[in-house]
Write a structure and sequence with these properties.
By secondary structure, this protein is mainly alpha-helical. It has one domain. It contains seven helices and no strands. Helix 2 crosses helix 4 and helix 2 crosses helix 5. The two termini are 36 Å apart. 18% of the residues are buried.
């Protein structure tokens, strides 16, 4: 799908990858800005509930709207193109953020009555972990292999 869209716009594969990384970084920054602002206001529980998908629907919608607005401002696009881009990249980045939060045990740490400074540090750790999920090893062609996947030898290797 991305390759087809790239051909239509005249972009080569490496340009598409670079653009995706830039877009993902901007989306992750927008999400982090909103979450950090909530932590600085003292809303630890709201952030933990949002990351565990247990937030009150009205609060979740409000946070998503704030994230969308920040991402739109960062992208500098307008109209239907901007809303389409935000509509597919923000859920993707949020999904990876939640996966990283669950893997790292951040939700338990947030519920253990942390200070603002500790929580902001943990959000920085979460951002880095999410970035590694989004872009495992940019430029090298390395792929993230799940634990249960069978190992394959590269072709042309010793038998």
């Amino acid at each position: 799908m991305v390759a087809r869209a790239a051909r239509r716009t005249g972009l080569t594969a490496w340009q598409t990858g670079r653009l995706f990384r830039q877009l993902a970084a901007r989306a992750l920054d927008a999400v982090q800005d909103v979450l950090r602002a909530e932590v600085e206001k003292g809303n630890f529980k709201l952030v933990a509930d949002f990351l565990s998908n247990k937030a009150v629907p009205a609060a979740r919608v409000l946070l998503l709207e704030r994230m969308s607005v920040r991402l739109l401002a960062r992208l500098g696009l307008r109209g239907a193109l901007a809303s389409n881009v935000v509509g597919w990249v923000l859920p993707f980045v949020l999904e990876k953020l939640v996966v990283a939060a669950l893997k790292s045990g951040l939700l338990d740490k947030l519920k253990a009555n942390p200070t603002v400074g500790e929580t902001l540090g943990r959000l920085d750790e979460l951002r880095l972990a999410t970035w590694h999920l989004l872009v495992p090893d940019p430029g090298s062609g390395a792929e993230l292999v799940e634990d249960g996947a069978p190992a394959q030898l590269p072709s042309g290797g010793p038998a």
